[in-house]
Automatic annotation (TrEMBL), chain A:
Any one GO CC term of the record: membrane
Native source organism of the sequence: Thalassotalea algicola
Membrane spanning stretches: 44-67
InterPro entries xref list: TonB/TolA_C (IPR006260), TonB_C (IPR037682)
Subcellular location per the Swiss-Prot or TrEMBL entry: Membrane
Phylogenetic placement of the source organism: Bacteria, Pseudomonadati, Pseudomonadota, Gammaproteobacteria, Alteromonadales
NCBIfam families: tonB_Cterm (TIGR01352)
Stretches assigned to the TonB C-terminal domain: 148-234
Protein name listed in UniProt: TonB family protein
Gene Ontology biological process terms in this record: transmembrane transport
UniProtKB/TrEMBL annotation, chain B:
Transcription regulation keyword on record: yes
Gene3D superfamilies in UniProt: 1.10.1740.10, Winged helix-like DNA-binding domain superfamily/Winged helix DNA-binding domain (1.10.10.10)
SUPFAM superfamilies: Sigma2 domain of RNA polymerase sigma factors, Sigma3 and sigma4 domains of RNA polymerase sigma factors
Any coiled-coil regions, as ranges: none
Organism: Thalassotalea algicola
UniProt-listed Pfam families: Sigma70_r2
GO molecular function, one term: DNA binding
Keyword hit for Cell membrane: no
Annotated family: Belongs to the sigma-70 factor family. ECF subfamily.
Alphabetical UniProt keywords: DNA-binding, Sigma factor, Transcription, Transcription regulation
Residue span(s) of domain RNA polymerase sigma-70 region: 43-102
GO biological process: DNA-templated transcription initiation
Protein name: Sigma-70 family RNA polymerase sigma factor
Length: 234, 185
């Protein structure tokens, strides 16, 4: 009984003692509590987002300054002629039309040095004949050659045929020769296959490409023009 | 032992310390920690103040809450928050005392030695003064065990907090009470 009373007294005293104790304010809540707690994954996400944006920006700048300026093709304007890529050397050679014959080279006969040869007399005789013949040539009258009536039509836009993938995989080559006309609008019409070797797809590709060619306006062709596409796989 | 606390937690999920504790570690929102501080700051500080001097107690109580704040999210969720907090406080206190070279291990161990009645006779007008004086005369282990018991922990819970055997705790409390009684009479 006495023990129990003492226990109760202890409880009471303990309670009183505890009430008298004043706990200090917690600094942790003051300093850390007001700040916004950012979870670790959010920090990571923000960091990677910034990284992504920064690297994108850098790459965008690099590409902006590194890329060449692309000018849009102007077909009917007078300003620009597009540089045209040529597929085969056949197309590369410009068509030059000679209006006059080249001057005839003058043949200068040098006196043949006579050397101590066993048949010296015969040689000298032959040289005389040659000189005579040359004199005949020099006096030759060349008839006037009529100027060939060939138009020089240069396309404003050349489109190269696409090499069909299936054909390229087979590594098949072929040659397609097409003839065509140019109408007043500068468009290519009446494409005909003159000669075709190899795959049919090549013929299609050549026709498709040719149909996109453009010539200057009001310069329709008098006759038919021809073009040769040479498909080769290296 | 665990079941009643769990049922208690289920019944009052809104305000129970366990709920606040789980919420805090899930969301890391300071208001949950503030609620926990409001609930347990006073008993924890009282415990620390009883076992050491005022300035050390103030240091340690800040350390305790800082530890709670910075702690990684605990893996287990079925704990009794009060005993968990007291354990954190006890460990922090022992760390601090070790740091100050004030920790004597044998002090914790001796629990059977009877306290000698001091020669000077203290005369207190009130019982509370006498009680405070008597409590301060107890050994570290006896004080601790007595406080834990007064805080409402069961013997098993005190064993868990202090890492001692059941019999040790039981005898510590018995000696603490006997000493108090003797000093206060």
């Amino acid at each position: 009984m006495k023990n129990n009373e003492f226990e109760q007294e202890l409880n009471e005293l303990y309670r009183q003692r505890k009430e008298l104790v004043k706990a200090p304010p917690i600094d942790v809540l003051k300093s850390e509590g007001k700040g916004v707690y950012v979870p670790r994954y959010l920090k990571f996400a923000v960091l990677s987002l910034f990284g992504g944006v920064a690297s994108f920006g850098v790459l965008a700048l690099i590409t902006h300054f590194a890329a060449p300026k692309v000018q849009p093709p102007v077909i009917d304007g007078t300003a620009t002629l597009l540089p045209v890529e040529i597929a085969s050397p056949d197309l590369d050679e410009p068509i030059t039309i000679k209006t006059s014959l080249p001057p005839i080279p003058k043949i200068v006969i040098r006196p043949i040095e006579t050397r101590s040869m066993p048949n010296g007399t015969e040689k000298i005789h032959a040289a005389k004949d040659f000189q005579q013949a040359n004199e005949d040539i020099n006096s030759l009258v060349i008839p006037e050659v009529a100027k060939p009536n060939v138009q020089q039509l240069i396309p404003l836009l050349k489109v190269l045929p696409e090499y069909p993938k299936s054909v390229a995989r087979k590594k098949a080559s072929g040659v397609v020769r097409l003839s065509y006309e140019v109408n007043a609008k500068g468009e290519v019409i009446n494409i005909k296959v003159e000669q075709a070797q190899g795959e049919r797809l090549l013929r299609r590709a050549a026709q498709k490409a040719l149909s996109q060619w453009r010539y200057p306006k009001n310069e329709s062709s008098q006759g038919r023009l021809e073009v040769l596409f040479d498909f080769t796989v290296s | 032992m665990k079941l009643p606390s769990k049922i208690k937690g289920l019944l009052s999920t809104g305000t129970s310390p366990e709920y606040l504790w789980r919420k805090f570690y899930r969301t890391r929102k300071p208001e949950y920690l503030a609620s926990l501080v409001q609930l347990f700051n006073q008993p924890l500080f009282h415990y620390l103040l009883t076992l050491t001097d005022a300035s050390t107690a103030e240091d340690v109580i800040q350390t305790v809450w800082l530890k709670v704040l910075k702690m990684d999210t605990p893996q287990t969720s079925d704990i009794v928050v009060k005993s968990w907090l007291f354990k954190v406080a006890r460990n922090s206190l022992i760390d601090e005392l070790r740091r100050l070279n004030r920790w004597r291990y044998e002090e914790l161990k001796e629990h059977t030695i009877e306290l000698e009645v001091p020669l000077e006779i203290k005369v207190f007008d009130d019982r509370l003064g006498k009680f405070n004086w008597a409590l301060s005369k107890l050994s570290f282990a006896q004080k601790e065990a007595f406080i834990f018991q007064q805080e409402g922990f069961s013997l098993m819970e005190i064993c868990e907090i202090t890492d001692e055997s059941f019999e040790t705790i039981k005898s510590r409390i018995r000696y603490a009470k006997a000493n108090l009684k003797r000093l206060m009479s």
